[in-house]
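ok trying this again, last paste got cut off
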Amino acid sequence: MGHENVGRRFDRYKLTAGYNAHINNKQFGGSSDWPLHYRYPNTTYTDTLTLTIGGVAFELHHARGETDDATWVWIPEARAVCTGDFFIWASPNCG
């Protein structure tokens, strides 16, 4: 399950695999290949999607973060938010 842009991002990763591997190896001093196989979501959503798992509602929300396919989750019953990489412990985030 994921935002509708996830598949397009995976397609772009496949097209730019050589470039991404080169940049990552230079940046991180390694020698590795960029992956070419991804598990595409079997269910996608555009703006919001609510799931109920074990009787608990999870509200998925699309937002643009470091990527255009990011999701943050609100769990009303627990009054909890799962931010993913929308919140980091660094300032400023120059990435």
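PB: full thing came through this time. The mean pLDDT is 90.
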